[in-house]
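hey so i finally got around to running the thing on that chain from the lab meeting. sorry it took forever, my laptop kept dying and i had to restart like 3 times. anyway pasting the input first so we r on the same page abt which one it is
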Amino acid sequence: MRGKYSEQQKIATDKYVAENFDRIQIKVRKGKKDKISLLAEQNGMSMAAFIISLIEAEAERQGFDLSVPPTPSQIQKKQQENDK
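ok and heres what got predicted. didnt touch it at all, straight out
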């Protein structure tokens, strides 16, 4: 059943994302997205990872703390690891 994505998996993934992530949307001029994607690829990253790395680097440069508390799933995973 490799390569199949069941409706239950989609629901579980959507629930996980909703509980653990915020979404940020940006708009760029036509044609710029492809250039940003190419730049990210040249740096061995997805576009999202590349943009996040730039934000994190700038925050670090400014001494701005971007850390956040762990997500519920991270806490649960840590507890499971500790129970072993």
